[in-house]
Structures are given as C-alpha cells and as structure tokens.
C-alpha cells in the first residue's frame, strides 16, 4: 500500500516540475520548438518553494513550508533532490535519489530507505511534456492565455473547477501503470480527490524556448467517510542549467546502508 501511496504522491508533486513542458497549443511552431529544446537539453537543475495549508475536521489548520532543490535527467529518467519541510509541529530535512527505477530516501531517525518502483515507473515515464497537451486540448481554450513579455513567452491557465487536474488524475491512473485491481481502498481514495481554483503560469525563454519558471496554486479537497480535508497550495519552481547535468549516481555508501521499504514494513 505504501508503494501505491508513494506513486500517488509523485503524481501530485511531479506536475509542479513537469508542467514546465507545456507549450502554447494554439501556436504549433512555438510548441514544437519547446519540445525540441527540452529533448535536446535532456536535463536541468531546479529549485522549488511550496506553501501549504492543510485543514481537517475537528483539528486546527496546519501550515507547511517546503523548499527543495535538485537535478533531473529525462533519458534515462533520474533525479536527485534535497528537501526541507517546516511546520508548526516539526521540521524535517530529506534527501532522495531516483536511479534505475529505484528510489533512495533519507529520513531522519530512520536512515536510508529504498523502494523498487519498477511496477510504477510507467506512471512517470508517461508524464512527459507532450502528454500534458492532450489534457490542455480538452479544456475550454478561453482559459488558456498566451503573451510575449520582453524576452519571455508567458502561458497562463485558470481553471476554477479543477477540470485540468482532475482529468490528469483520471488519465494517469488509467494509463500510467497503476493497477487498481484488488486495491479498492486506493481507488476510493483517488475518487475522493477533487481539485479546484487552479492558477498556472509558465515563463519560457524566447531565445532558447526552455522553461525558466512555473507558478502554480490550487485547492485540493479529499472527502472520505463523510468528512472532507482541504489543502491550499502555492508553489514556484525555477529551472536552470539545462543540459549541464550529465549523470546522477547513488553513492555506494547509500546503497550499502539502505533498508528496503518492503522488509521494513513487511509488504
């Protein structure tokens, strides 16, 4: 179950980075140049700042600040990320690698853990830049605005009803490799998620056609057993150093000391 939950978390978090691949679907030349530029670069570094407020029935709301930085390569798909989480109740710093379909994560007081994501990696493989156009094409075009500001192309999307993100969840749960057979609880959880108040802004360098910044805010409601938990989130992701990340390697001492999630939780 933890594996499937982690895959779901990746679905919720990766769009913050991978949405950077969306181009103006009304301008085929610009979109084609963006895709070509991303494929040629194949890698980049990023910083990400996320501000969240989580409220649950009968409990005080919790504010959470998440800052991270890392590196990504798309072919092969690898990643390295340092993340700091701060709330009113606790602080936590983590480090993670994703290489060869394996995820290694450092969790304070537990050390290094690893998980085999081979069965779920198709979910992330399918979440490439071009896949998001499929979803954008099914939205009311009046919600998508495109402009040129100095040396940058700017794409903005406002989706008060959450149609974009809800459609993305349905699409990738159906086609991204998550088998729901025998996982009725997980299927029910996914069905309970509803997105709204989505505001998305993508800034693209007009010379290189590479994304430089993504701004994304949204509200997420999760309704289970007659109660609803809500989360509001705002995030800013900045990308740079395209093509400068050659390889991401997991240090041998991390591999040697990591404990399997499966063994730890007896999956």
Word description of this protein:
Helix content is 28%, strand content 43%. With 267 residues, the protein is an alpha+beta fold. The chain has one domain: outer membrane lipoprotein receptor (LolB), chain A, CATH 2.50.20. Strands 7-8-9-10-11-1-2-3-4-5-6-12 form a twelve-stranded mixed β-sheet. A hairpin with a 2-residue loop joins strand 4 and strand 5. The protein is globular and about 50 Å long. It starts with a helix and ends with a helix. The N terminus is likely disordered.
Mean pLDDT: 76
Any guess at the CATH architecture? Clam
Radius of gyration: 19 Å
Give the CA-based shape: globular
Instruction: State the helical fraction.
Output: 25-40%
Instruction: State the strand order across the main sheet.
Output: 7-8-9-10-11-1-2-3-4-5-6-12
Describe the sheet with the most strands.
12 strands, mixed
Number of domains: 1
CATH level-1 class? Mainly Beta
**Which band does the percent of strand residues land in?**
35-45%
Uncertain stretches of 5 or more adjacent residues: 1-26, 126-135
Count every beta strand, where a strand is a DSSP E run of 2 or more residues. 12
CATH topology term: outer membrane lipoprotein receptor (LolB), chain A
Separation of the first and last Cα atoms:
8 Å
Structural class computed from helices and strand pairing: alpha+beta
């Amino acid at each position: 179950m933890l594996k499937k939950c982690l895959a779901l978390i990746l679905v919720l978090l990766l769009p913050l980075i991978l949405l950077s691949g969306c181009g103006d679907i009304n301008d085929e030349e610009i979109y084609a140049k963006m895709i070509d530029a991303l494929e040629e670069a194949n890698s980049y570094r990023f910083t990400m700042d996320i501000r969240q407020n989580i409220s649950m029935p009968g409990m005080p709301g919790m504010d959470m600040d998440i800052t991270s930085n890392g590196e990504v390569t798309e072919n092969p798909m690898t990643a390295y990320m340092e993340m700091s989480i701060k709330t009113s109740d606790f602080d936590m710093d983590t480090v993670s690698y994703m290489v060869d379909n394996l995820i290694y994560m450092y969790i304070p007081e537990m050390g290094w853990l690893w998980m085999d994501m081979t069965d779920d990696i198709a979910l992330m493989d399918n979440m490439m830049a071009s896949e998001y156009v499929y979803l954008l094409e099914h939205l009311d075009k009046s919600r998508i605005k495109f402009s040129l500001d100095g040396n940058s192309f700017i794409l903005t999307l406002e989706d008060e009803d959450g149609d974009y993100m809800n459609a993305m969840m349905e699409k990738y749960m159906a086609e991204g490799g998550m088998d729901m057979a025998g996982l009725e609880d997980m299927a029910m959880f996914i069905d309970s998620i509803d997105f709204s108040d989505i505001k998305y802004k993508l800034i693209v360098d007009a010379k290189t056609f590479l994304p430089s910044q993504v701004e994304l805010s949204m509200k997420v409601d999760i309704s289970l057993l007659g109660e609803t938990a809500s989360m509001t989130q705002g995030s800013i992701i900045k990308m740079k150093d395209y093509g400068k990340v050659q390889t991401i390697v997991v240090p041998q001492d991390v591999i040697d000391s990591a404990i399997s999630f499966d063994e730890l939780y007896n999956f």
